What we know:
Bound molecules: zinc ion
Shape: globular
Strand order of the largest sheet: 1-2-3-4-7-6-5-8-9-11-10
Order of helices and strands: EEEEHHEHEHEEHEHHHHHHEEH
Helix content: 25-40%
Structural class: alpha/beta
Amino acid sequence: MRTSALEYLNCPKCGGASLKLTGDSAPAESDGHILTGALSCANCAANFPIRNGVPILLPPDVAQVKLETASRFAEEWTRWSDLRDYYDREFFDWVAPLGPKDFENQVVLEGGCGKGRHTAIVASRGAKAIVALDLGESAFVAFAHTRHFPNAHVIIGDLLNPPVRPVFDLAFSVGVLHHLPDPAAGFRSLASRVRDGGRVAFWVYGQEGNEWITRYVDPLRKAITSRLPAAFLRAACIPPALLLWAAIKLLYRPDANGRGPAKLPYGDYFAAQYHYPFDEIHANVFDQLVTPVAFYLREDQVRPWFASGFRDAILRSHRGYSWTGVATVARASIPAARRANQP
Ligand SMILES: [Zn+2]
């Protein structure tokens, strides 16, 4: 971490804007990063370690299921760790109608950064700063991928209690909220760190269009695959991934507009993956099966997230199997009595 990150961070224990680098921390490297050391809170005296360049800002009471989920995904992001050129197109597809210009000169918060694929995109697209948060060890991979960006800050923290100040122009979370024990609370917590008038964006799994997953794959994930040792699951995912990869190559060639065959399930989704190498398909299959927590959300479950405290909300179906939402934070629209209880 660089000390410039401190202007965005809060103590995860008392919420105070009072974290300081301790005197016994290692001196900064030539690129400005402090790789080992600690932060201490001048308000409540809590201490938080910095390890491998990443401050670990966890409150003492993080639920076990969240740590377990994060550690299962770390198995994915440390194994399939490289960044690829098609991530850029994927990302702006997920957060549309936001485009690259919407990130320029913005102070950005990323809720759940995994290996840092989106952190790197936003940092390279001219964000003033991006603070990328993850609960698991994948944050170390994200740090390695983004340490050369002077505007990127990676931290370990809990998205349901993010150790950052409410100063962000834009917060986003792609593919993460549906893995929290309470996705709606995750969205509220992400939005709570956005300044009034700033924007919040997310992409989550839909239940609509994913009926076969909720019916056939989900029970298998819950009962078996999420409990398998990661190395074994990686190997077990190779045969179905090979079948899927072959099916994509044979049946899902995109047309001139990038659209997939309308008659086949997930037409546009798989057509977008037509040029992906096999190991990306393998990673996607593993991703579906590895996690202990995954919610497939209906429109009527997601739409109420914007019910109060937002304006200009847009919720749209993304390729028929997921939801993308973007809205502007407008706290003045919340009744005063309720506003008093907001962070
Ligand atoms: Zn404190």
